[in-house]
Write a structure and sequence with these properties.
Elements lengths: L19 H54 L11 E3 L10 E4 L11 E4 L6 E4 L2 E2 L15 E4 L21 E6 L11 E5 L2 E5 L4 E6 L9 E8 L9 E4 L2 E14 L12 E9 L21 E11 L2 E16 L13 E8 L2 H14 L24
Antiparallel strand pairs: 1-7, 2-6, 3-4, 3-7, 5-6, 8-9, 10-11, 11-13, 12-13, 13-14, 15-16, 16-17
């Protein structure tokens, strides 16, 4: 006898799928789980972005502070040279200044003191002019590789009144390189944006230093705050109920030519979003107030004044820097609250202290005066100075 099969198959049941209610419940659970996952991922992304911005901003500020610390500590350094100088000019004593020719005047500038000749003809004279520059009241020497000074001894000449015992031939010339006591400029004015601005003030630091790059040159450096906005409108933020403008700290470096009429080169940005309170006038180069730390950007502590014939220089013994930087853009993690930090340091320029010591030991007259052309003028248009 043949048994009949069920039309429903071996088990006698029909296969069934998910009901609509079950699918909706599953989707709801998955949505809740994925929402939590996305929230964690979003917070992690916010934190990553915030940490990246803070790190980048902090590195830029620290790099700028390191650069300023190195250069300010070398303020006033007068570059040395080791190559010997000689002259074959015939020199007869004269109360008037004379220009003589050297084999090279590299490293010799107006205001330097040089030792001329040896033995009984040895004398120390001040360089009043060279072939490229001259102190105020003197004229540039007309020949190449020349220096001008008042000579009281005979050199390479037996012409009357020089005695016949004077040695003929070339004689050595060696330079004394004392530090510049005024290596940080203070209390002077410079043409800046169509007006005269005092340097150095609480947000502009004008200084010159020497051979930090082993080039034998003297350099002029300017640090200054300026509005970075191309539209001319200052961006501002509010911190603890106080409003601060956002500036960029710029740096310019120019070789000192020891000549009048020198102009500083273009500046480039060091640190962006430097916090500073609103200025007391509409000019972006006028006097300002304090940064977010309650201190000016630059503060100067003076030491003993130094007499450099015929003037007196108030020597800056210490420079205090308070750099308050806002994190931009504001971290998403903090809900738009502005984050900021302060980098502060005190720098003592060792060469300026050396100038004070030199002056106190009675050798102050050998200290070189501030080079001609300092402080250098800014270009007539600020847009020609700030990129």
């Amino acid at each position: 006898m043949v048994m009949a099969r069920s039309k429903h198959g071996e088990h006698g049941q029909t296969a069934r799928g998910f009901t609509l209610l079950e699918m909706m419940a599953s989707l709801a659970i998955i949505s809740i789980i994925m929402g939590a996952v996305f929230q964690v991922m979003f917070q992690a992304q916010e934190r990553f972005q915030g940490n990246g911005v803070i790190t980048e901003s902090n590195q830029a500020a620290r790099s700028a502070l390191q650069t300023m610390s190195q250069e300010i500590s070398q303020a006033g350094f007068n570059p040395q040279y080791t190559s010997s100088k000689t002259s074959s000019s015939a020199v007869v004593p004269n109360s008037a200044a004379q220009c003589i020719t050297l084999n090279s005047i590299s490293g010799i500038n107006p205001g330097d003191w040089v030792a001329v000749d040896t033995g009984s003809q040895l004398e120390t004279v001040e360089v009043l002019a060279t072939s490229s520059a001259a102190l105020t009241g003197d004229a540039i020497c007309g020949g190449a590789n020349q220096i001008e000074a008042v000579f009281e001894q005979c050199h390479n000449s037996i012409t009357s009144p020089c005695p016949a015992t004077v040695s003929l031939g070339s004689f050595p010339v060696a330079s004394y390189k004392f530090p510049f006591a005024g290596g940080l400029l203070q209390g002077q004015t410079v043409s800046y944006g169509g007006s005269n601005v005092t340097v150095s003030n609480d947000h502009i630091l004008a200084m010159f230093y020497g051979d930090t790059d082993n080039s034998g040159n003297v350099w002029y450096v300017v640090y200054s705050l300026y509005n970075p906005s191309a539209s001319g409108t200052l961006q501002s933020v509010t911190i603890n109920g106080n409003s601060y403008n956002l500036y960029t700290l710029w740096r310019s470096i120019t070789q000192v030519t020891f000549a009048t009429g020198s102009t500083v080169t273009h500046a480039y940005p060091l640190v962006q979003n430097v916090l500073y309170q609103p200025l007391t006038n509409a000019s972006p180069v006028g006097p300002g107030l304090n940064g977010a730390a309650g201190q000016p950007i630059f503060t100067y502590k003076f030491t003993d004044p130094v007499t450099i014939v015929p003037s007196t220089v108030s020597v800056v013994g210490t420079v205090v820097i308070n750099l308050c930087v806002a994190v931009n853009p504001s971290s998403l993690e903090t809900g738009g609250v502005v984050q900021w930090y302060t980098l502060a340091t005190q720098i003592r320029p060792i060469n300026l202290w050396s100038a004070v010591t030199t002056n106190q030991t009675g050798a102050g007259k050998y200290l070189p005066p501030t080079p001609l052309g300092l402080p250098m003028a800014f270009p007539g248009s600020l847009s020609a100075y700030y990129f």
